[in-house]
Known about the structure:
Blueprint: H1 8-15, H2 18-23, H3 44-49, H4 55-59, H5 62-76, E1 81-82, H6 89-93, E2 98-101, E3 105-108, H7 130-143, E4 148-153, H8 155-164, H9 172-180, H10 182-206, E5 210-214, H11 223-241, E6 248-251, H12 259-264, E7 269-271, H13 278-286, E8 295-299, H14 308-322, E9 328-332, H15 342-355
Parallel strand pairs: 1-4, 4-5, 5-6, 6-7, 7-8, 8-9
Antiparallel strand pairs: 2-3
Bound molecules: coproporphyrinogen III.
Amino acid sequence: MTQPSQSPVATEALAESAFLLAARGEPVPHTPVWFMRQAGRSLPEYRAIREGITMLESCMRPDLVVEITLQPVRRYGVDAAIFYSDIVLPLKAVGVDLEIQPGVGPVVASPVRSAADLAAVRPVTPADVSYVTESVQQLRSQLGGTPLIGFAGAPFTVASYLVEGGPSKDHAKTKALMHSDPDLWHALADRLADVAIAYLSIQIEAGASAIQLFDSWAGGLSARDYAQFVQPHSAKVFAALEQYGVPKLHFGVNTGELLGLMSEAGADVVGVDWRVPLDEAVRRITAAGGSPKPVQGNLDPALLSAGWESIEPEIDRILAEGKAAPGHIFNLGHGVPPTADPDVLHRIVKAVQAKSTRG
Length: 359
Ligand code: CP3
């Protein structure tokens, strides 16, 4: 695969970017900040460009992927871009019949319930997603010293959409499958690990500087079930990507009880939602004897509408608590809600960068 051409200056700026330094636990010029779901409906320029085009269609057009990925970078001056795509895109690319319904999320026409249904799930090849390679290469040359984060859904979170047939609050069918037919569960999760490995490798080989594995809904599991049914499959993904030497971030919502196990799965940076303070997160990551790691987070997205007098002290608190970790990447505790005010997000970026600047 051809590597995108990068000037030596851009390559050096990238290696010394605040985001990559923090992800490696090295000293930073300032605490880097980006937002999960920074691209999307909160931006008027996103709503305009998406008019009349479905979500998945937009993910398959390099002109749109590049523009939508760059929109929040331009507007906010964030320290990293995240590739515009979706966790179900690789499944769509191999022919799984699914769509993303606005205001709902991914909906799968024929949920996976038996061994025969597994045949529909195979890893993507570069030929299946040539538009991903092309988009990442273009982004790499346009982003200069700003890192691009590639991403994929972790086996459990993607499985939950496939098994439930769509979004679910309690993931009851997925949990029932794990316990009633562990062989089928492990076969499905193993396939989804291969899907994530293939999809992330394609993004890294095209020029992504880091990857984030989203296990958004893992927080619904007990630590015991997570350790038995989920961790080995996420660990397989991280182990397979080790060879690339790029930082690997891992995140889920409501994972306070799982932070140690998610760290042990092989993450270099552990994402934390707003429920657990970052210093306490570091304690939980190291409790089982693990070494401290950089953390990412964790402003409550609900506070975006609370007014600056409420937000600023939270930024100060989070920056202070983040000092307990060898590296801190500022983020929200989950994605930007569609109702967020872009001016508030911009102000947060400026404040985090200014307050944390080393003199
Ligand atoms: O800016 C970014 O973070 C990059 C793009 C991104 C999208 N999806 C674009 C998107 C990322 C990283 C994702 C990952 C994703 N997709 C996750 C993990 C992150 C998380 O939020 O926990 C999950 C669980 C999904 C599945 C999914 N896709 C959901 C729940 C939804 C929202 C449905 C809705 O309309 O409320 C989507 C759709 C989606 N993915 C949108 C975007 C910008 C909104 C669709 C639209 O604009 O019409």
